[in-house]
Specification:
The protein is an all-alpha fold. The protein has one domain. It contains three helices and no strands. Helix 1 runs antiparallel to helix 3. It starts with a helix and ends with a helix.
Length: 181
C-alpha cells in the first residue's frame, strides 16, 4: 500500500509540475507571438468551423505639414507723364520705391508668420513622437521585465514539482531495494 501511495503522489507531483511548466511556456509564447502555438491544429480547427483564420491588425501613424510662400514685386505706380519735370519723375520713382519696400515688408512679415506656424507644427509633431516613443519604450521594458520574472517563477515551481515527484516516485523502489539487502 505504501508503494502505491508514494508512486501515485510522485506521479501527481510530476503531472502538476509539467502542467505548470507548460502553462508558463504557453504564456511566454503568447507574450511574444500572437499566432497559434500549433499552427496545424489552428488550421484544422478553422477548417472544422468552416471559417478563415484570424488576421492581425495594421496600425499607421503619420505626420504631415506643408509650407507655401509667395512673393510679389510690383513696379507699377502712377504713370509718369512724358513732359513731367525731373523733379516730378524723381518724386514718382521715390513713391514707387516706397510702395515696393512696403510690399516687401508685408511679404516678409507674412513669410515669417508662416515659418513660425510651421515651426510650431513641427515642434508639436516632434513632442508627440517623443511622447509616443517614451510610452512604447516603457511598455517594452515592462513586457521584458514581466517576461523575465513572471513566467520564470512558474517554470521553476513546475520543475521543482517534477523533481519532487520523481524523488517521491523513486522512494518505493529504493525502499524495496534496501529491504532486499
Amino acid at each position: 500500500m505504501f508503494t502505491l501511495i508514494m508512486t501515485s503522489l510522485g506521479l501527481l507531483l510530476t503531472l502538476a509540475g509539467t502542467i505548470l511548466a507548460l502553462d508558463a511556456f504557453v504564456d511566454q509564447f503568447r507574450e511574444h507571438d500572437k499566432g497559434p502555438l500549433i499552427p496545424a491544429w489552428a488550421r484544422f480547427r478553422s477548417w472544422l468551423r468552416g471559417s478563415a483564420p484570424a488576421t492581425g491588425q495594421l496600425q499607421a501613424v503619420g505626420v504631415a505639414a506643408s509650407f507655401e510662400a509667395a512673393g510679389r514685386i510690383s513696379v507699377r505706380g502712377p504713370d509718369v507723364r512724358e513732359d513731367a519735370s525731373v523733379e516730378e519723375k524723381l518724386k514718382l520713382m521715390l513713391r514707387r520705391i516706397e510702395t515696393i519696400e512696403s510690399e516687401a515688408m508685408q511679404d516678409r512679415e507674412y513669410v515669417e508668420r508662416r515659418v513660425e506656424e510651421l515651426k510650431d507644427v513641427v515642434s508639436r509633431a516632434r513632442s508627440d513622437v517623443d511622447r509616443r516613443f517614451n510610452e512604447l519604450d516603457a511598455s517594452l521594458k515592462a513586457k521584458v521585465k514581466s517576461l523575465a520574472v513572471g513566467t520564470v517563477r512558474q517554470q521553476i515551481l513546475g520543475l521543482c514539482m517534477v523533481g519532487a515527484g520523481s524523488l517521491v516516485a523513486a522512494v518505493p523502489t529504493i525502499s524495496q531495494a534496501i529491504a532486499a539487502l
